[in-house]
Please model this.
Amino acid sequence: MTKTPIPTDRKPRPRQAVIWEYARSILLGVVLALLIRTFIVQAYEIPSGSMEDTLAINDHILVNKFIYGTKIPFTDLRILEWREPARGDVVVFEYPLDPSKDYIKRIIGLPGDRILIADRQVYINGQLYENPHAIHKGREIVPKLASPRDNTDPIVVPPNSYFVMGDNRDNSYDSRFWGFVKKDRIKGLAFIKYWAWDSERHSVRWRSIGDVID
Model:
């Protein structure tokens, strides 16, 4: 049985039209990716052990960039703010001494808080603050005259600023050493691990993938 071809009025498109269609699709994809990265979520890799054991070296995480308000590019303005940064949040921010670098730490002190560290213990407004994620891998307590790591003078957090610390308290370069993080320098809230690689064993840390960061 002979099949009769179905007639069509569709004409072959010029080569330039095909190229433009592909270029438009690629451009749209790039724009959407940039919008998502700028306003919604961004991926980061953990380069150091300052947040162990919450975050390990070579953990890959996603950061919510709109929860503290969407920052308008090239300005300090934020819109659509869901909530203020809270004590205990793990945040990514521009390192105050070099804004080209991103750091990740946990918020300990809020604006107006009075912070005191005595023999590794953190006191906030006169009350002992215990965070279950904080660890100390060393035994020695460093005197205040040698370093602010384990002992500090009272510190009052300025307005629109935050006092941050790494969970690996003995191996974290944080607010104890260089001061406060301005709110407008916070990029977002770390919320989940999407990949984890153990460089020593050259293997994937499967149990870590999908862990919510708290």
Remarks:
- The chain has two helices and 14 strands.
- The mean pLDDT is 87.
- The first strand starts at residue 41 and ends at 45.
